[in-house]
Specification:
The complex is a heterodimer of chains A (281) and B (256). Chain A has 281 residues and is an alpha/beta fold. In chain A, 35% of the residues lie in helices and 26% in strands. Chain A has helices spanning 60-68, 90-97, 115-119, 121-126, 131-144, 160-172, 190-206, 218-226, 243-246, 265-269, 274-280; strands at residues 22-31, 34-44, 49-54, 75-80, 83-84, 100-103, 178-182, 210-214, 227-232, 235-240, 249-255, 258-263. In chain A, strands 6-7-8-3-11-12 form a 6-stranded mixed β-sheet, with helices on both faces. A 4-stranded antiparallel β-sheet of chain A has the order 2-1-4-5, with helices on one face. In chain A, helix 5 crosses helix 6 (160-172) and helix 6 runs parallel beside helix 7. In chain B, helix 4 runs antiparallel to helix 6. Chain B has helices at 2-29, 36-48, 51-74, 82-120, 123-129, 134-171, 177-186, 190-216, 221-255. Chain B is mostly helical and 256 residues long. The chains are: A alpha/beta (281), B mainly alpha (256). Chains A and B meet through helix 2, strand 6 and helix 4 of A and helix 5 of B.
């Protein structure tokens, strides 16, 4: 399958006057002879969601690591929060990461710390925020993911779904503008996965966080793209998203390091390409 | 030939990465931020945590030295000089090297396993994502604690080694207690004491930096962690012996 030509891709979405949060321009990366990403280009605007899908080894997680500067591309440019990061040193990248949070595949919680210490890690270690304020913020975000009573537990005492929600709380504790999710529901049962999906939707719609989601769980991907969160008297409610809101979530299909589809949930559902059909079935 | 070239390339890459880590550690050790809490935690883990193994090693080494050398010295009617032999051997060479080898087994492997587990579960990537430099947070506190605690543990090993030698000399060899201790002092020059105190700084650096380097280069899940642990012990032990030779040579030049 040939890569999607620029002119056939969905329009570069964004609200008028908005500058993109993430821009990939012809990004290539290879490890020795193994080409991981081959000419990847896309833009992501504030408040929007980009959902990367594809088979294992197609380069999805690598995209997240490039956005965060954990890996550097061989060629091409990457701009995050208006700054080119592809040539930055590790020290320069720390400033960019102040506005970007990441939820790792298995949570990557620090085993030796409590849930509260994990969630407040950045605030405790890398800011001058008073300890009482850090504690308040930790309680606030744990309340947001409905894990307030677990603040003094160790990660080993939590279930898989709770660990993912703590990881989300840790990533959002310092109020990033951009959140990256690496397979946040993989290995979870469908009911638990829905609770994680709900947190992602809440963060996007109630906190205005721009999201990049990498997954091969299509059910969760479509749920996040087609649902929205609204404030309700008892906290919040997850509802079906309006057609305009659905358009704010873009699916990107990667195959062998190339983008082979880019478009909305509806466009993906109605795609006729045999590979896409096979993937969706 | 191709296999040898591949092996050589891999070995050179390891040396390059180790040197880069050592330089980054030196840079981070003299600049902010410094994680005091982790440093104190490591002083406890490396220093207090290794005390038992070091005391037992020192005690039995001193005892066996006295036992072996006592009977050899007997052949020359020199049994009263057993203290001199124990002190010279322990303080100049055996104390620092055996302490370092024990630490290579306990500390280097522990660090490699801990950091290796953090690598394969993406905790190190999570640290970077949260804006924390893993070298500052994980490596610097361990290296400084290792450099500081290895000499302290060596002094403990030397002391209990001399005590072990004293017990055997008095109980098994019938050497008078006063004669043993005066012989211990006679056998030492100030330069020997300096050598015994300075060498552990170099050895402590090798033990911890090797553990950190191997740990942070761990790949391949739990199997990789197992391999890293073994590699750390082997590399740190060989490194200790090699560094002992080079530091002895350097200190002989400087002190004598």
């Amino acid at each position: 399958m040939a890569p999607v030509p620029e002119e056939l891709r969905g329009p570069a979405k964004g609200r008028p006057g908005d500058e993109p949060v993430v821009v990939f321009d012809d990004v290539r990366l290879a490890f020795d002879d193994n080409v991981v990403l081959d000419g990847i280009s896309f833009k992501l605007y504030p408040g929007f969601t980009k959902i990367f899908i594809g088979a294992s080894g197609s380069g999805k997680s690598t995209v997240l690591k490039l956005i965060l500067g954990l890996l550097a591309p061989d060629s091409g440019t990457i701009t995050v929060h208006g700054q080119r990061i592809d040539g930055m040193t590790e020290n320069e990248l720390f400033a960019v990461r102040d506005h970007t949070g990441m939820v790792f595949q298995e949570g990557a919680l620090f085993d030796s710390m409590t849930v509260g210490e994990n969630v407040g890690f950045k605030l405790y270690e890398e800011t001058d925020m008073p300890l009482a304020d850090v504690r308040t913020r930790v309680e606030e975000v744990l309340g947001f993911v409905e894990l307030g009573p677990y603040i003094d537990r160790k990660p080993s005492e939590l279930s898989g779904g709770q660990r993912r929600r703590v990881a989300i709380a840790r990533a959002m504790a310092f109020k990033p503008k951009l959140l990256l999710y690496d397979e946040p529901t993989t290995g979870l049962d469908p009911i638990t996965a829905l609770t994680v999906d709900a947190e992602i939707i809440k963060l996007r719609d109630l906190e205005g966080v721009t999201s990049v989601l990498v997954t091969h769980q299509l059910r969760d991907a479509f749920y996040i793209a087609t649902h929205g969160a609204a404030r309700a008297p008892e906290g919040h409610a997850i509802v079906s998203a309006s057609p305009e809101k659905v358009e704010e979530a873009d699916f990107v299909m990667l195959r062998d390091g190339k983008i082979v589809f880019e478009g909305s949930a509806d466009e993906l559902r109605t795609a006729t390409d045999p590979y896409l059909r096979a993937f969706l079935s | 030939m191709a296999a040898f070239t591949e092996w050589l390339k891999r070995a050179l890459l390891e040396v390059q990465e180790y040197s880069k880590l050592a330089m980054a550690t030196a840079r981070c050790a003299v600049s902010r931020p410094f994680y005091w809490h982790d440093f104190v935690e490591q002083l406890d883990a490396i220093g207090i945590g290794s005390m038992t193994v070091v005391i037992l090693t020192g005690l039995f080494t001193g005892a066996v030295l006295a036992l072996q050398s006592g009977f050899t010295l007997d052949q020359f009617g020199a049994r009263p000089f057993v203290g001199r032999l124990v002190s010279a051997s322990m303080i100049k060479e055996l104390g620092p090297v055996l302490t370092a080898l024990m630490l290579a087994g306990r500390v280097s492997s522990g660090i490699a396993a801990e950091l290796g587990s953090m690598m394969v579960t993406e905790q190190v990537s999570a640290l970077r994502a949260l804006g924390t430099d893993p070298v500052r947070k994980l490596v610097v506190p361990r290296v400084l604690a290792g450099i500081l605690m290895t000499p302290v543990l060596t002094v403990v090993a030397n002391t209990v080694g001399l005590l072990g030698g004293w017990v055997v000399s008095v109980q098994n060899l019938n050497v008078a207690s006063g004669l043993y201790w005066s012989s211990v002092v006679d056998g030492l020059f100030l330069e020997d004491v300096w050598m015994g105190l300075l060498k552990p700084f170099f050895l402590g650096f090798i033990i911890v930096t090797v553990g950190c380097h191997v740990g942070l280069r761990t790949r391949g899940g739990t199997q990789g962690v197992g391999r890293a642990t073994t590699n750390a012990v082997v590399a740190a032990s060989v490194g200790v012996i090699a560094m002992d030779f080079f530091s002895t040579q350097l200190l002989l030049e400087l002190l004598f």
